[in-house]
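Reopening closed ticket. The problem is back. First fold of the pair:
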Amino acid sequence: MRNYKRNEYKGGTQNWNIDQDKNGNLYFANNSGLLQFDGSSWRQYPLPNLTSVRCLKIDDSGKIFVGGYNEFGYFKPNEKGKLEYTSLSKKVDANKIKIIDFIWKIHSFNNQVIFQSFARIYIYKDGKLSILKAPKRFQFSFIVNKKLYLQDEEKEF
């Protein structure tokens, strides 16, 4: 086991989430953005609004879905292997939803990607985004036995 100090990975003080791709690269949701570690070197990929990345999920296609404050989307390697970002939060109608808030959890579920904030669930499927408003406030979300569970302050469904 090896402990990496902040001055080695040159990121923020908090790492919120971790995932690994099929090539063995490690990814960290960090206060400074998405951190990538290939076993020898670190790379940092900030979000467009320079917010912290609070969660991440790598799907079967290799897309690295991330969520932060008022921003969510995915990174995908280009032909040279450098990660490029695509914002999905730009698909949210700013006239209807002014503040997306923090995205706290991401699930890959039934060919969909589910982004969970306290106020809403953003569902990305086949290039389209749909939104489910929380009855009161989504606290947690989990996948158990191939079922998605959302805990609200008032209800569970």
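Second fold of the pair, where the issue appears:
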Amino acid sequence: MTADIQYQRPQMRLAPAPTAESRAFWTGGERGELLISRCHGCGHFFHPPGPACWRCRSTDVAPEPVSGRATVAAVTVNRQPWIPGLEPPYVVAMVELDDEPDVRLITNVVGLPVDDVRIGMAVEVFFEDWTALSGDEDSRVWIPLFRPVQD
């Protein structure tokens, strides 16, 4: 793998509009926490967040912090300028959380050349603070992104 490169924050991201169930996921980054829904009935994490566990159907669910460590499960490099201000190339990856490998997130992997991101690579979360287009404080979110694990 080539040397790490400095990550440059894009000029723009399409910020989500959190729902009651997803608000913790999108705002946990303010405290540096990746919050994933956990079922207290069967003990498993699940994503995306929802009002009930898809495994056991329990409604005793709540967001809990996870380690923020993951493994790249799938990767593609986007080379098309789809979103003004989010200049290509950039990596779109599916990562599997170390805490519960069948919990996967779609994200960007940054901090190294795009062609160096590989399936099986160990990554860790960090967060970008964004405000959705409405501009009010309630629309502030922290986008979870991943970078190679830093020892």
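Update: turned out to be a display glitch only; the data is intact. Residues 23-148 form one domain. Helices lie at 23-27. Please close again.
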